[in-house]
Amino acid sequence: MKFFEFAEAMRPLVPGKLSRAPYLRELISMFTTVTENEWGTRNDPITVVSDSTLDSMTSRDNAFTKKLAQAIHSRLRIDNFIDVIQDLDDAAKMLIVHNLEQFGLGTKIDQLAFDAANELVNILHEKAKITTDDSALRREIRIHAALAAYRQELLVRSRGCQVCGASMVTVSNGKSKASPQIVFLDSDTPEPSRDDFAVLCLPCGEKYRLAHTKDDVAALQYSNSRLLTQQQLGDDLAPLDLDKKLVDLLQRIKALPRAQRTFDPNYIVVPLEQKLTDDGLLSRCSDAMAIYERVIRLESQALESTGQFSFNRMRAQIKAAWWSMIDADLTEAEIFSRLAMWIADQTGGDQYASEVLVAYMIQICELFNPEDLTGKVLAA
Ligand SMILES: [Zn+2]
Fold this sequence. Notes:
Elements: H1 3-9, H2 20-30, H3 51-57, H4 66-74, H5 78-86, H6 90-102, H7 112-128, H8 135-157, E1 181-184, E2 197-200, H9 202-210, H10 214-237, H11 245-254, H12 270-275, H13 279-305, H14 311-326, H15 332-347, H16 351-363, H17 370-373
Antiparallel strand pairs: 1-2
Helix pairs in contact: 1-6, 2-3, 4-7, 5-7, 5-8, 7-8, 10-15, 11-13, 11-16, 13-16, 15-16
């Protein structure tokens, strides 16, 4: 595709019926960086081009010079171009898709920003005779197109800055006071998914962009998996509310004095071995049970005797949550940690105590029961 064809196809991007030269100035400004100080000076690649040249650039390829292509390329602001395309309504996107098709570029609405940005780079490279390695630029296009496509969803999903927890609540006119920043989590995946991004507040986002470690990335990935769990379980289980007294039970688990955290020599691991195939998880659960099984049994009996806690009710709720995860094609370890996260989130409780409780539920035949998994009907 030639530049004048591309410019014609992208017409719906620029509002108003601008005539040829003003239209091209506006279009080119969407994908170039020119600071305010440079407006109208020789550093602005568009200013130095006369209106009559711009006019002919809308209909003839040879009016677009190698020099101008190089100037535009050196000031390319491809992220902005992707954003303005992504922000169009579907009708305008569809129009551009049809236009590009006329000039031989097949694309779809949800691919448009990505394909148009790459086509623009192709055109500039050809005209400017640039042959250097462009993999970094192509990668930037891929990442930013994914970010732009997921932006709304990511903002809705995040409940605050994923680093400091600052609120992202939107104030008037749809703008958020916290100006949420979406950062990329350094994955090498060819097609970034929404979990390769995180939402941070402005200060945390700037700090992350300046420098971050592998640990920072890992913490954000963990935060994403929590959000995903909350979202999945929120969809499936929102009406259920875990027994409030469960909080007491978790606190008692957490508050067990160190001196009492000893391995019970009478603890029997067989029930766990029959249900878990993941060795690492089996060790974690059996260690936890050797210390806590008796404690949980006695504590839940004590709570139940006060009449405010129903162990059976809690058991049914946790099992319902477990069932909702079985079909999601998760590993034992993933289901285990998601259940524990869910319990911790629902109770404002402690992650470790929640894991101990899940281990206990496995121990007493409620979760990961092989007979359940093969679909047999069990007597209650
Ligand atoms: Zn923050």
